[in-house]
Amino acid sequence: MEKDSPCYRHFHLLIYLLSITAGVSKSTIEPCSGSDSCPALLGYTLYADLKLSEVAALFHVDPLAVLASNAFDPSFPDVADRILPAGLLLRVPTRCSCADGIRRSLSARYRTRPGDTLASIAGSVFGGLATPDQIREANGIPDPAALEVGRTLVVPLPCACFNLSDNFLPAIYLSYVVRAGDSVPSIAAMYSTTVTDIMNVNSLGSTAAINPGDVLVIPLPACPSRFSNYASDFGMIVANGTYAITADNCVQCSCGPGNLNLYCTPASLSVSCSSMQCRSSSLIVGNITTKSTGAGCNVTSCNYSGFVNGSIVTKLTKSLQPRCPVQPQLPSLTPPPTTLMRDLFLAPTPLPLPPEAGGALPTPKPSPPKSPVSGELALPGVSPATGPDATAMVGGSASSMNRKEAILIFCSALSLLLAFALPSSDTSILLH
What we know:
There is one protein chain. The chain has a domain at about 25-110 and about 155-220: LysM domain (Membrane-bound Lytic Murein Transglycosylase D, Chain A). With about 425 residues, it is of the alpha+beta class. It contains eight helices and 18 strands. A hairpin with a 2-residue loop joins strand 16 and strand 17. The relative contact order is 0.12.
């Protein structure tokens, strides 16, 4: 194909249109004012095999907080050095701040390395949670092409607070990057929420159209705490199916999955802790006793009430309930994975079609190696000697077609694609 031919120009125009279309994505922006912040979660896909401690360092969070947000077992040996597989989707906790009138998480820092570009940092290292322009603006970079090695960048990441509620119920918002094959129903099923909630909070409209690269905020049901204003963990809220470590790693508070009541027990970590026993009782935090009577069930529980001035505050609660409560159901803790499980919501690979009646198909003879032809278009990584014969894709009678006819058909199809891809006002480009 000649470089000056219309067909050559059409081919590169189509590649350009596809590239700018793929680069356009949308995200939900929550306006804000003041300096308040809230807890939030980031849906982060690992770009490479990383230790759990490396993921935590990338987002400047405690490794225990990453474990808790994903219901991973914190007592697993050498858990901080556990290598997580590339492609794993994690929930990373963060603080959602108000920056320049919109919600952003500004805790992530990244030190540039040789070969880094703003596009690779945004799209690969941070899994599409940020855009190159956002990183450039946040760091005042005049020339993205002159990105010096060793510079520490602030990476602004999308997040939302929405008063930590969804339809007047407690919720934490997770920022999720849409992947190929996703739909609003599949995302809703993955995070145990509803299609309506996702559509409303992201202003998707009636079509619920999403594309890979879009960043949605997903409302996750949560358990709020009711600790004293003087507690260092005042305002703690835990997403359903996860837990939080607090009180100097001494207390573990879980949410669900049976109900949305926060339930705190002593943590399984080997640390020195202050007393967790309730006054005037032999019960410790998390203990519940029940006794059936003719009037109902007498329930006594020892509850965690916050971490104040280095001490664990407890509260003994007695109540008469119609029926005795069942033992609280805790999230199922698992070891951090080392291999990646295939996403269940993605369509399976089609099986080969069975052979039709009429006997076994003859084994095709290998084609002799071809010498490259001047002007022939070769795709990267596909050798003309081993790749499919271009004329075989045109039809059964194409074996006798010469090269010029094949190129003519290719150019005609390419022009037709461009006619659909370009706006009507730009179709004149095809005539030049």
